[in-house]
Design a protein that fits this description.
By secondary structure, the protein is an all-alpha fold. Helices cover 70% and strands 0% of the residues.
Length: 202
């Protein structure tokens, strides 16, 4: 996410972070189901309406990096170097996300998410949304020349790589293994460079 530059934007970002940090602390101390929106607002010293101006739901308080991760994924496609293959660029971003989310400090958060049906459902809907945004970015790149189905499939595979990797003993190695398969699938869907009836340039 782009860092806020103006005073008003910085203040807004600070309030948002304060709410998210307060919510996470309360959830981990007392249990996700035991803490309500009003409890978070009171502890963060903000109005409930202020809280909802930053977070659309209680579940969103846990996934406060949602928008940032979505932007990072699409930027891995749109911001990669000219002529850089898209799959390695995505693999680097997923690896970075895995490192961020699998730090020791994140373990209690994932235990909380895994124990809550509401949070697991929110995470699933978030992954689907990220996959659609990523697929749109891939499809919009004129250098990639893939069908809509191929773009959506590869985007879904890339997003699911994160979830699968975090369930393993070695998430980084798992991402590499999964992306070997993703790259093979991507290459298999590429249109041939020299279709029948064309003259090769080599």
């Amino acid at each position: 996410m782009t860092a806020p530059t103006g005073r008003r934007e910085r203040k807004k970002a600070a309030t948002r972070q304060k709410i998210a940090d307060t919510a996470l602390r309360l959830f981990l101390e007392h249990g996700y189901d035991a803490v309500g929106i009003r409890d978070v607002a009171a502890e963060a010293d903000v109005a409930v309406t202020t809280l909802f101006s930053h977070f659309a739901s209680k579940e969103a308080l846990v996934f406060e990096q949602d928008e940032n991760f979505e932007q990072r994924l699409t930027l891995a496609v749109t911001g990669r170097a000219p002529h850089e293959p898209v799959i390695p660029a995505l693999r680097r971003e997923i690896q970075a996300m895995v490192r961020h989310c699998m730090a020791d400090s994140a373990a209690p958060i994932w235990h909380m998410i895994d124990a809550s049906p509401a949070l697991r459902e929110y995470e699933e809907s978030m992954r689907l949304r990220h996959a659609e945004s990523l697929a749109t970015a891939i499809a919009a790149d004129p250098d990639l020349s893939q069908t809509t189905t191929a773009c959506r499939a590869i985007a879904r595979f890339a997003i699911d790589a994160f979830s699968l990797a975090r369930e393993t003993a070695d998430p980084q190695a798992a991402v590499d293994e999964i992306f070997h398969m993703i790259e093979a699938a991507w290459n298999a869907t590429k249109p041939p460079h020299d279709a029948p009836g064309t003259v090769s340039s080599t």
